[in-house]
Amino acid sequence: MRYFLKRIGFYVLTAWAAITINFFIPRLIPGDPVQSLITKARGMLSADAVQSLYVLFGLDKSDSLLTQYLKYWGQLFRGDLGISFTFFPSEVGEVIGQSLPWTLALVGITTVIGFFIGTALGTLAGWRRGSWIDALIPVTTFLSSIPYFWLGLIAIVLLTGPDSFFPASGGFDTGVVPGWDWDFIGSALQHGLLPAITILISSMSGWILSMRNMMVTVASEDYVTVAHAKGLSDARVMVKYAARNALLPNVSGFALSLGFIVGGTLLVEIVFSYPGVGFQLFQAVGTKDYPLMQGIFLIITLSVLAANFVADLAYMLLDPRTRREG
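RESULT FIELD:
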């Protein structure tokens, strides 16, 4: 119980620090986004209207930085992430809500599939060293070292074209109205297939390599030797004894991957012009959109913390030593 309470305290403190940094860092970026918004309006705004914009975006120069910080916390407690500069007058929550499902569908599914397939293949490769599966390790090592976006660029060059099944960009065909019908779903799956394959290949290779190395280490432990001496089947020893212990480091990595799903795979979404959170973040940085950047960073931070908390719970189930006091 003490371990559990310590972890909760750690996550609360980390969330406060992350939200504080999230508030101050965008304000250190040179430039004035409100003035950029005024420029777009061709200066046809009165002085009172300009002042109203500063107040609306929480950048009132008459308030000190500390006052802005306290107001920011008040907005968060009300669930108000502010109004986006880039998509004015849309609220940040609305903008993120439109792009988040795309990222969760693309990166979330590929991350989970890549973890399970990679872990299973890595378990077999480490347990049956010298087999044909183990011979694939040099290939997976090479693939894991290639960034997602490079695989994406290569895939676009080789697999897309006028007569190709794979679209080169976008989330769905032009002219298709988003909705829960087969035209939209089929178009979205077709556009998401190629970026999903590039993410899956790269991420799966990393899971294979890490799990294989841990299985090689664990296979020489005494408890594995004892399990063999008891006459247990090879498959049971591999799964119940070796893989269960070798899996622990991968659980932490998988938790971090789940947390960063929300942030999307920034460069892949840019390469494929995919309408996810990562692409929205890229646009927000380019336009110095403080509220949108803060909203996306906040969602990513809370997702990573929640995923790590789930990983701690998984550790408690997989490793009894974490449940003991002292």
